Amino acid sequence: MTTFKEKVLELGSTTHNFPLPSYSLIGEADDTWSQLASMKVFKPASSALSLDLLDIVPSDSQPCGRTTRTFNDTEEFIDYLNHSPINGGLRSISICQKNSWASLKICQPMLESIMRKHDIMPEFLETVRCFHDKTCNVEEAFGGSSWKRCTPLRKELTFVMKYPEHNGRTDGADPWSIRQTGVYQSFDTAKKTSIWILLNPRENTVAENRTKGLLNTQDGFSDPQGQPPLLGLIVLSIYLNNWRTYMTYYEKEELRMSGIVISAVIDEKLQFSHSTLSQLRRLEARLLLLSPIFQSLIQAIHLLEAFNDSLQDYGSVSDKAQKATQEILQNYNNIAIAYSQNATFILNKIRGTAQLLSDTLNLKHQQTSQTISKNTLALNDMAVKDSATIRVITVVTLLFLPAQFIATLFGMQFFSTDSSGTSMVSSSSLWIFFAIATPFTLATFGYWKWMERKQRLKAKLDELGQKC
User: Fold this and answer.
1) Is 140 helix (H, G, I), strand (E, B) or coil?
2) Does 5 have pLDDT greater than 70?
3) FRET pair for 44, CA 20 to 30 Å: which of 25, 103, 329, 440?
């Protein structure tokens, strides 16, 4: 009886039994698989796994037979691959993440088995690499690489499509999130066999459900052989127009804020502040990622066009299907270019509004500074006038102070006249006045000197603290 380990080894599910070709652009096999493991692209084999598979096998006597399975066990899945050939048919595999920041819900042996069984080009791992576990919003603008491999016997393509999607947030946060879907499609011209693989950012995506609906319809998909790059067309038709709604949302936000900025009057209170500038910068950040994403999208469309041409060159699809597909792809390419141009326009508007807002705030600050300077100058003038008044009062005080002191001194009971009224006699207790006044005077000057010294010392310590 064949053990599970032997089944895995039979399909080459270890890195040593599944080497990558020397001409592959993604490096050595051990390095590539270890990188995928370190990025947590896969789940452990013992965790909850899920893989949906649909086989369409043609028959001469009856409509195409369809087999739909969901695999949660690695051994069961590999056993199915071993005993279920699809020569002349189509196999569609759908793999998903729990959410767009989680690992794919398959383990490494499952993916290795798929790649070995169906001779999938190693560059597909670059598409898989985009679906890894993460804790922050990294690679949001990275559209991944588009890859194709065309030989007389086999045509393959793979790419990642980025698109916006409503995230359902109602707490005032950004209602849009950037998602991604991975696509792989191949056609074996010798065996007349097609392989479709769809990598989804969550369960039950629109692309997954629409693909299943198409493949499960007898009238809608009766010939699985030699199809155009239909899986890529499905993904484009579903998600491409999301970008228009996404850009319209942020353009409305820009128009709302630009209206406030343009109508501002410098002499009146402004209805915006630095927080408004921060909001504009956040809008700018949301639009900055569109340029690289649209460039990757246009490259993917060109890849689909080349794949479609290669199928027609070897007679795998009819001239009618090839031309119809080519026309659709050209239209998608034009739409992507138009979206890219619109994104550049909106981004420039946001930057212009941000610059106008910044200039307005600077002018308002300058006006406020000028007002403060004028008020300070007026206060200085008042201080100068007050200083002149105080100086006059001081002079008058100094003028009258000696006479006031003499009058006060002689007005006390320490002096009197003799009986004849011709001479003044001082009291023998006159010393008491000087004995009391002198210490108080010295104490007052001493306290003043002590406070002055204390303030100078504090100023020096503050200066030393600033230097340190």
Assistant:
1) coil
2) no
3) 25
